[in-house]
Amino acid sequence: MKTFHVIDTDDSEVMLRGSHDECVKWVADHDGDPCYVIRAEHEVVNWERDDYQFPRLLAEILAVSHDKLDYDALCESMDVVPGELHELFDRADAAWERVKRETCR
Fold it and tell me: CA 52 from chain center: how many Å?
């Protein structure tokens, strides 16, 4: 028997013990809102995965602030040349795109 978290869109949460099917039935019996998320207690969610969130963070920083980013200061702080910095951002973006392809099916 597992413990599941049932989370509604308003962030209210109910913890249930039983099978996944029993939790799905509970959701259906309680208005059947399709926005409920049922997650096993021990299940790691994408938000908790550094290998997902770190490339996402770098890719989003570059996407929203590339024209405001102080590349020279960042290069100096990291002890890299501009080409290496751009390569890191490209690698982060490629890693984030890979994560999106793998998780958004």
Answer: 6
CA–CA dist 7, 27 (Å, integer): 10
> How far, in whole angstroms, is CA 54 from its chain's centroid?
9
CA distance 103 to 53: 13
CA distance 50 to 26: 32
How far is it, in rounded angstroms, from Cα 62 to Cα 72? 15
pLDDT digits (tens, 9 = 90+) for 21-43: 666 676 667 665 555 555 555 55
**Per-residue model confidence (pLDDT) at position 74:** 92
Is the separation of the CB atoms in 41 and 61 below 8 Å? no
| pTM more than 0.70 | no
Please report, for the chain, the start and end positions of each structural domain, with discontinuous segments joined by +: 2-40, 46-103
